[in-house]
Structure formats: C-alpha cells, structure tokens
Amino acid sequence: MRAPQAQMATVEAPATTPVPHHTTARGETRVERARLNLSWIVQLHWWAILGQVAIVVGASSWTHIGVPIVPLLAILVLEVGGNLALRTWAQHASPHATSASVAAVMFLDAAVLTVLLDLTGGASNPFSTLYLVNVALGAVLLPPRWSWTLMVASLAGFASLYLHEEATSPAHHIRTHMDAAQMMDSHLRGMWIAFAIASVFIVFFVQRVSRALAARERELQQARALVERREKLASLATLAAGAAHELSTPLSTIAVVAKELQRSLPDVPAEVRGDLQLVREQVGRCRDILDRMSANAGEHAGEPLAPMSVRAWVETALDGLPARDRVELAPEEDSLDAYLVGPPRALGDALRGLLKNGIQASPPEERVTLRLAATEGWVRARVVDRGRGMTADVLRRVGEPFFTTKSPGEGMGLGLFLTRALVEQLGGSFQITSRPGAGTEACIDLPAADAAERSGP
C-alpha cells in the first residue's frame, strides 16, 4: 500500500530531539524514576529483613555463637516499620521523590547494616560482603555523585567497625565457646553464604531494576515522540492556514474568470464549455481542501465527538469512494453492531483514505479486504491490499509529513500522518505492516464505546 494522502500512519516515525519546552517534562521524568527506584528498594528491604531473620535464627539455633537477640529484634522491628512508612511515602508523597531522597534511604541502609554487623561480630563478620549489594544498587539507581558518595559512606561504615573494636574488643557483642579452628571454619562457611547471598541479590535485583528502568525509558521516548508529532500538527496547521489565506484570492479569481468566460462565450464548442466547467469544479475542490486544512490540520475541525456504530463508520468510508466495488468486507460476528466515539466525518475520511490507498496500490483485478473485529473493549479495522508492498526503508518513513510514494499530483504525503494523529487523539493506535511482494496491511485500533457513551448526547 502506498503512503496515503488523506490519512495518517502509525508506523514508527523517526524520533527527533526533544524541544526545549520539555524542561518540565524532564523534571517529571526524574520524579517518576525516583518513585520507581524507591519501589524497588522497598522490595529489596523485605527480602533483606527476611534474610536477617533467617540468619539470626540460624545463628542462635544451629551454631555455638550467641548473639544479642533483644537488640537485633528491636532493629528488625524498626526496619519493618520504616519499610512500611517508606512504601507509603513512595506511593503517595511523590512530588518530593528525588535522587537525593533515594540516596538518603540507601545511606540509612548502610548505617543499619553497620549496626547489625557490629552487634554480630564486627569487622570479622563475613556478612560485611553485603555492603557490596548496597554499592551495586547505588551504581544503578543513583547519579554518579551520589553513587560515589554512597561507596565512600560504605567504606567509612566498614572502617568504623575496626575503630570500634580497637576502642573495645573484637566481637565484643557475641559469645562463643568455640576454639580458633572452629571459629575459622565457621567464618569460612559464613563467607561462602554471604558471597552467595550478595551475588543473588546483585544479579537478581540489578537486572530487574535495569529492565524496569529500560521499560520506563521506552515509555518516555514514546511520550516524547507523541508530543513531537503534536507539535508537527500545530506547525502544519499554521502552514495550512497561511496557504489557505494566500491561495484564496487567486483561486477566487480563477473561478470568477471561468464563470465569465462561460457566460460571454455562448457559441464556443461544448468541449470547451465542459473544460471551463471542470476548471470551476476543480477550483471549488481546491478551496474545500484548503478550508479543511486551515481548520486545524490533522484535527477534526471542530467536529463534535459522537457515538458511531462500526456499520455507520464503514458506510461513511465507502460513500464517495472510487471503485468501491473492489472493497471486500470481512466483518467478524457482531462487529458491525459495536460502537466507538469520535468525530464521524473525520473517522470516515480516515478509513476512506486507507481504502483508497489500498485500491491504488493493488492491481486493477485485485480486491482490497476490510476486516473488522470488536473484542475486549476495542474496535479494530484492518485494510489489506494486494500491492507490491513496501521496503523496510520506505516503511520506516511512512507517516512522515509530505512523504509519499505516489506520483506527483496524486497526493501530498499527509494522509497517514493525519490519520495517525486522529487515532492517537482518540486513545487508539494505528500501525502498518508490509513486505515487498506481499502487500500491505493498515490497522486501526480504537476504544469501543460503552453503554453510557452510546446513550450520551
């Protein structure tokens, strides 16, 4: 299917660099990223608390090491309460969620870990490896200055364990009856367990956080691309309004002169009179096109939104379509009785443009199929032609303003661009798939109207 002239496409248009007015959006992006980071930290805290409980219980029950149970339990209770508060804050107090707030939480984590290590063996505790989990997460979640600062804070926390032992005595909070060999054996086993726990936490959570951040970045890129397309629409509207203003006078002059020629030359051949009439008709068509373009290009020109059945949508699209007998309808069961909400004329123009493009792209003896479906709150219309298809390079550019594969004079390359804008304004999506030699399929997905919207004014 060729790149149309009256509709718009949903194939991926090349993303452009965001414009300066996105400063506020970038601020919102930072807040959203901080919220996401806090949500992952909350999940990490629950796993850490569970691990701490298991280690304390295991050390008390299955080893000859006595740990201060009451202080440790008190810290665990504080951790649970603090994590519940952090989860609530992350969900509801978002305007204040920044990289600094995420860093503050991670600094507090390093401090809590330092206290726990001091109570359970000090610098000789093999679980000091868990400092690396916090440092690794900081490298992923925080800007460089905060991640480096967190690393320094973790080193300082670890060093404070040595300083505390020098001021008191090594492992002064624990009691044990093991000899040196048994202590070394326990230490080595603990090192292996600590290494395994740290490795699992780092790989599992860093990968999940990275995937979540990547998905968020893709969403933001799509949002920026949508804003850029709307800016192009605004620019196109300005261009169209200027063109309509500049061309209205010469077009009016041509129409008046053609009419006067018809009146003043009554004896001219019928062929000439027919040509003059054709000139007047084409001038009128040009003025209609300019009027529609100047009424906010790409939008529905003030046309109100109204409920519309799929049957009426199809009938509107087929009305005035050249070679409509070449369109083959293939509706699924009950799809024609589904409803959608939108500007009826603009929706009809959009679908008609796709059908027209399919007819123009297909050989004269081939038909174009219009497949309709209504499922799970969506209405889908697919226009499938039997044309030559598009190469990957052409497909990437489909939907760009003023890009067309048609011959000069057959289209301006605005059709797919405007269709895409209309569909996205209505909360839907528009996509085109094509392969050379296999034809092209254009697909419109629009939200179906519920009962309340159907009965609305």
Task: Report the principal-axis shape.
Answer: elongated
What's the quaternary structure here?
A: single chain
Number of strands: 9
Q: What is the chain-wise order of helices and strands? A: HEHHHHEHHEHEEHEEHHEEH
> What do the pLDDT scores average to?
76
Rg, Å, rounded: 34 Å
Helix-and-strand structural type = alpha+beta
Domain unit count: 3
Low-confidence stretches: 1-27, 296-301
Q: Output the number of helix runs.
A: 12
Widest β-sheet, arrangement of strands: 4-6-7-9-8
User: Could you give a short account of the major beta sheet?
Assistant: 5 strands, mixed
The helical percent reads: 55-70%
Strand content: 5-15%
Distance between the termini: 38 Å
What does this structure look like?
- By secondary structure, this protein is α+β, with helices and mostly antiparallel strands.
- The protein has 3 domains: 20-227, no CATH class; 231-294; 306-455, Histidine kinase-like ATPase, C-terminal domain (Heat Shock Protein 90).
- It is 61% helix and 10% strand.
- The chain is built from 12 helices and 9 strands.
- The chain has helices at residues 23-62, 69-92, 99-119, 131-141, 144-167, 180-264, 270-294, 310-318, 344-361, 392-397, 415-425, 451-455; strands spanning 65-66, 175-176, 306-309, 327-331, 339-342, 368-375, 378-384, 429-434, 440-447.
- Strands 4-6-7-9-8 form a 5-stranded mixed beta sheet.
- The radius of gyration is 34 Å and the shape is elongated.
- The model is unreliable at 1-27 and 296-301 (pLDDT under 50).
